[in-house]
Amino acid sequence: MRTQAKLFSRRQHRVRYRIGQVSHGRPRLSVYRSGRHIYAQLIDDGSQKTIASASSMETAKGESKSKTWNVASAAEVGKLIAQRAIEKGVKQVAFDRGGYLYHGRVKALADAARKGGLEF
Q: Is CATH 3.30.420.100 the classification given to domain 4-115?
């Protein structure tokens, strides 16, 4: 029997392989979800550099009692990464959900990024 970590790693590699096949040089919008925070990075795989990043830690800096592990904070991160990507001149990206299901916080981040102007 395989452990959860191995299964997650397999999903992660499968998603990244498929993105590499169809991205056609577009930057990759990578999502990492922890128990308390959610992070998004815009990565150029050709030059192996991060173009822009955003996290729920940034959106909750001033507010001490705001929750950073809910769907609303993930949507804020999506808006923020879209804004930063457009400032850098990036409109089309390939969405990398990692090994996570496209549900809940990951979906909220993706929908907010689309509303912010990113195309994927």
A: yes
